User: What shape does this take?
Amino acid sequence: MPSEVKMPQLGMNQDSAVIVSWLKAAGEKVAAGEAIFEVETDKATVEVEAAADGFLAGIRAPEGADVPVGDVIAMIVDREAEVGEHESAATAPDGPAEAPPTQPAPVPSPAPEPNEAEVAAPFTTVPSAIAAGRILASPLAKRVASEQGIDLAALRASGVSEPIHAGDLARAHAGGLSILSARVEGGALAALLERSEGASRTALFAAFAASAWRAAVEDAAVSIAIRGLDGSITPYPADAGADAALSLIDLCDTRLDSFAPAGGTPALAAAREGDAFLLTLSFNEDRLPFPTAAALLDAIAARVENPIRQLL
Amino acid sequence: MRSITLSQAVNEAIAEEMRRDETVFLIGEDVAEAGTPFKVTSGLVEEFGTGRVIDTPIAEPGFSGLAVGAAMTGARPIVDLMFGDFLFLVMDQLCNQAAKAHYMSGGKLNVPMVLRTNLGATRRSAAQHSQSLHALVAHIPGLKVAMPSSAYEAKGLMKTAIRDNNPVVIFEDKLMYQDKAPVPEEEFLIPFGEANILREGRDVTLIGTSSMRQVCEAAAEMLAGDGISAEVIDPRTIVPLDAATLLESVKKTSRAIVVDEGHQNFGTTAEIAARISEKAFYHLDAPVIRMGAMDVPVPFSPALEDLTVPTPEKVAESARRIVAGELIHAL
Assistant: This one.
């Protein structure tokens, strides 16, 4: 008995998936449990295993096709000789509306490469934005996002989990700020501050940030604006000009978690989370590209975690 | 202000209206000598006599039909249906005759009749004496449906019902007859179609009919302890329904739970939830949740019966889940 290979349901709300690649060609021998193709859902790329032993035949969906869940995309036949039968059905020029031909193809080819133009017929390849799946968001969240010009897809990509609710939109405020955060063990820094009398934690954060900036962004001195909870702004280093490239706020003595000021200047916030430090970097990807921002925050986090790095 | 029981409130409303208008009369099983099994009408026969407080045989279709005819010809009958479950017996008199007479007669006939009956489970009365069947009659155009949630509403709505020129079905919760609430001594009426906001809130709207109002109020109290601010609204009449007040509240809170003691399937909760979903869709941050009675015949076993009705705990749990943004449709 030939068995059907169907597009599996891989996620709760998934109604289709994109075939990334076929790992087996038509006519190839497959064993039950062996991966035969790879699909991409909105969350991950997954290998799909054969459900039966046999030979892969009648591949109906080419790589790149977005296929509805449950659709038959190939067959696994018992004997190699049956491969051609299914191949011809799949490549029939009239597409799926036509009944499959009743006569077997005369000459089974051992492992024909599927002709993309022909096998693509049953499925249309949809633009990636749609292929990525519908975004699960409440009606209110959708309305507010549309009113405020917030891109829900970008919000999801930034790590906001679905369903997206109105409250999640706060993360996308200030016209497209991206936010990175890091949680860092604070024991070493706390010990350092305890031993060095008169050392200012805020100044230390600024020094770490400046050093990390030099390592991750550009090899030059950076001017930092240290924002106080009273609204004050202190330049770092003390002789820096008014045009700060980075702002810093130290929330460790408060119950606050993070602060992402509006505007385009990258902003670093440091807060306590138990014994650890919570570092948040908010930035505009137009001005500070994501890879640079990630490297910067990682470098700052490394210095907070192990202040010895600062001395090296 | 004095507090009186729901029983006393209904009794007062009927007595006041009978004194005010001599065309008002009361008819039903055990309404005169026995004062009904719930002692709601005790004392009325002594004041108004057996000509206006009429005991009938066990024949609901007969005395309901009699009342429809009396109403068409100038009287204002109050029909006492001992249990809401007996509505099935009077469906033709109520839904085919009373509800449609004004329309069928081209406006020549009115049926100013009140059918007062009850709802509510957990009285250990088993499946044929425990149903909450208000959705059945709310479905029929031409009938108004009032659902008092305390002694105060019971009195004010009953007086309005008696003065209404259309047939009104009024459902009292049979478990609330001994519950006391402040009721003014001076005369008052509660207009139909005006919901009552009992508690203002920010995060979720709890809509409770009849005794489910108390369930919602208790749930709101529990939720307050979790930092969730719930608004509680009693629609008071489901026909007409004060949709505007409900929608205004849901637009503010963005979430709603509708609680009612009728069966959940095809019920009052479904109707109210659908209206909210249609009219406040773009204000909703969570699916509108229906909480009705379980879709089973009401069990006689007390342990099982208690499981079939919404409780403050269940309402609070649902509220916590939608406020937390859980993916409800996948559950």
The interface with chain A takes residues 254, 281-286, 325, 327, 330 of chain B (CB under 8 Å). The mean pLDDT of chain B is 96. The domain at 196-330 of chain B is CATH 3.40.50.920 (Rossmann fold). Chain B has two domains: 3-182, 196-330.
